[in-house]
Amino acid sequence: MAINKTVNKSSKSHGAMRNCIEYVLRDEKVRDGLCMVTGPFVAEEINYDTVYNAFLDEKRIWDKDSARMYAHNIISFHKDENITAEDAYQFGIDFAEKWFDGFQTLVAVHQDKDHIHIHMVTNSVSYIDGHKLHNSRNDLQRMKDLTNQMCMDRGLTIAVKGHHFDGSLMEQYEISTWSKDKFNLLVNDSKKSYLADCGLAIDGVLAKGCESREQFIAGMLEAGWSVTWTDSRKNITFENEDGKKVRDTNLNKTFNLNVGKEVLYAEFERRKNERERIKQQQLDRDRQQLSDEQLRQYYAEVESAVTGAGADTEAVGYDQTADPGEGSTVSRGETGRPGEDFDAFLAEFDAREQDVGNAVRSSIRDSRHERRNISIAESESVTNEHRSIAYEEQRRLEEQEWLDAEREAGEVGGRSCVSFESDIDL
Prior knowledge:
It is a single chain. It contains 13 helices and eight strands. It has helices at 14-24, 48-61, 85-99, 137-153, 180-187, 194-207, 213-222, 248-255, 261-309, 312-315, 340-351, 358-412, 418-422, and strands at 2-6, 30-38, 70-77, 105-110, 117-123, 225-228, 237-240, 245-247. The strands form two sheets. A five-stranded antiparallel β-sheet has the order 1-3-5-4-2, with helices on both faces. A hairpin with a 6-residue loop joins strand 4 and strand 5. Helix 9 (261-309) packs across helix 12. The longest helix is centred in the C-terminal third of the chain and has 55 residues, at 358-412. The termini are far apart. 19% of the residues are buried.
């Protein structure tokens, strides 16, 4: 993994250029002579004097010995990257010839740290046409893209934003700044960092579970930070009570804390969906518990009904040898057919069968149907006998009415009905 960094130091004086060249070519840093100058360079030895004078000569030729004097870049490889000093040296030369084509560039490999890194100091005036070196913000991104492509071509790892060399994610607030001044400011407890305070305030507000832009802004205001978040501005700006301002991009670069608009909107939406998902899960659990309880109660009712189905004729309270007119009752449905209520109960049971296991359904259904058939058969037998008894009773009533009519007729005609009545077997 190679990180390409442009050093933003003052470069508008001869002294600054000389000091930079002198630092890059120090003996304790450069080993095995791994340094060179691309472009015109006639001196037999490479040292800070010869390189410095070679740069000045090109500036004077084109009469551009003022303003920005040089550019300083560093390509650093991770300490676990599988690369030798010689490979890094060739990497630096290839990069300089591609990116700084037409400009003198001092390339030197440093091995004084636990990781290999390349310094490149480039003359600001082109030796081809004399135009000044200029790198825009887009050029810096293209520079990083070229570095990654060269790593890929060599089988080296690629730097991924927010990830370590091994591919693991960086934690929030893990400092990733390349500025030593900023790093020392952040890690030194003796110095107050409003940048770190802003990051901690954001983390605290998000930890409270805010789900909207309005909730987030209100939370930051309570934490002492006003928020400028408008559709007309690309970035979110935070400002504390002392007037110190922090952009979301600065927090991302320094602490790997991405709090841009799109990220926050996505996080708010994710939290809302998660809350709804948890709520729905709870409702499903409640429904399931209720359904299970109802099912247990229903099974209890079914088993009770199944057990009592075969004894329905005994429960009706009649004696086949007794006179049905003396205190006997038969359980009937509203339509008068025995087993009507049981059929309605069975219909409800069948409607719920789809939620019951096949084995349990089959067992209960077969048992219930068998016992129901027995109950209905016995009930029908009782009904037939009742009909016969009712018919005999009706006949007796009709005979009694006829006798009563005859008796009344006899009394009117002056005849006695005693002998006649005695012939009737009551």
